[in-house]
Structure formats: C-alpha cells, structure tokens
Amino acid sequence: MAGGGSLGGDRGHQKRGSLATKRKKKKRVGFVLDMTPLVDIAFLLLTFFMLSTTMNTPQIMEMSIPPQTDDVQVAASDLFTIQIDDKGRMFYNLGEETPQLLAMKDLRSLAINENMRKKNQLITSFKVSTKAPYAIVINVLDELNLAEGDITAQLTTEGLERKRKFSLMTLTPEEAEVLKTL
Questions:
Q1: Where are the alpha helices (DSSP H) in the chain?
Q2: What are the tens digits of pLDDT across the range 94-125?
Q3: Nearest one of 123, 111, 124, 98 to 150, comparing CA atoms
Q4: How far, in Å, CA of 32 to CA of 30, rounded?
Q5: Which residues pair with residue 127 across a beta bridge?
Q6: Residue 90: which H helix or E strand, with range?
Q7: Which end of the chain is more exposed for a tag (fewer CB within 10 A), N or C?
C-alpha cells in the first residue's frame, strides 16, 4: 500500500524500533525570499515620485494695478465706499453720507442692490487701514467678487455690458478718526 501504514488495528502508527517499517521522511527545502532588492526598488520609486511631483502651488490673488496718473474727478453720488478700521470693523457709505456699520453677511446683497440701482455708474472704493486684519480684507474682496457675477448677470439681462469700477486705497488718518467715533 502506498504511503505506508496498515489497515489493521494499529491505525497507521508504526511500532517503535522496527527498522523495516520506518520510512525516512524527505526533508523539505526551505524557501527564502530576499526582500532587500524589493525594498530598494520601493524606496527608489518613492523618492522618484516625491521629487518629480509638483506640489500644490500657493493660492495667489492676482491684482493688476494701473500706474498712478492724475486725479480723476468723480461725482460723490456715484461712489460706494467700504472702509475697514484697525479693529477689523467694516463700514460703508454712499456718496458723502455718514459711514454706517456693515456686517460681512450683508456686503454682497448691498453691493448688488447699489450697483443695480446705479446701472453701471457706481464706483466701489475700498479703503483699508494698514493695521486691519488681513483675513477680513480678503473676505471683503471675495464677497465683492462673488457679487460681481450676479451684477454682471443682471445687467446682461437688461442689455447692458458690465464695466467694473473699483479703487483700493489706504484709510486716511482723518477717516480713521471719524470711524473711531462711530
């Protein structure tokens, strides 16, 4: 019978000491895999992709500022002024009115309503204190850019082409003093 063993009562157990019934088992040859080249290749690929991949470029807001020219005369009634003081408070006024406190959530709707009321004649003047928090300045610019899409869409439906008029200036000390009293 192949495989050794017997059908009898010993149930395949061999007796000790009998040389004839003992079979010598084949030794299994161990399988050894050298992982060093695999690890070398993995790290080479990792460094290759790390060095050849371009990382996220920083988000930059592009602003094209024309060269300073002579002063431009503007009618006060066409001026929409947004001011930010040292503490980060935001104010607005139309023309020569007294500045009023403005919340960030109301800025977009106010800009849309005033621009639609003036039908492309409104000039947005953004005056910022040199000590104003940078994040608030960026948030205001973002809100004005978001409002610009709605303004353009509404003017297009009325058959008008949008001509954006925008001015960015620093807050003068006199204006800062007025804002402190509010």
A1: 36-52, 104-118, 134-157, 173-181
A2: 888 888 898 889 988 988 888 888 887 888 88
A3: 111
A4: 6
A5: 83, 169
A6: strand 90-94
A7: N
**Which residues are 100's β-sheet partners?**
92
The CA radius of gyration of the chain, in Å to the nearest whole number, is 40
Sorted by where each begins, the domain ranges of the chain are 76-181
Residues making up the chain, counted from first to last: 182
Q: Is the pLDDT of residue 40 over 80?
A: yes
Closest to 92 (Cα-Cα) out of 147, 156, 152: 147
Give the class (CATH, top level) of 76-181. Answer: alpha beta
**Helical packing angle, 134-157 and 104-118, nearest 10°:** 30
Higher pLDDT, 119 or 66: 119
Binned at pLDDT 50, 70 and 90, residue 78 comes out as confident
Burial category of 81 from C-beta neighbours within 10 Å (exposed 0-12, middle 13-18, buried 19 and up): buried
Ramachandran bin of 95, using left for φ above 0, alpha for ψ from -120 to 50, beta for the remaining angles: left
pTM of the model: 0.59
The pLDDT tens digits of the residues spanning 156-180 come to 888 888 888 888 888 888 888 888 8
Yes or no: say if 124 and 167 are a contact pair by the CB < 8 Å rule. yes
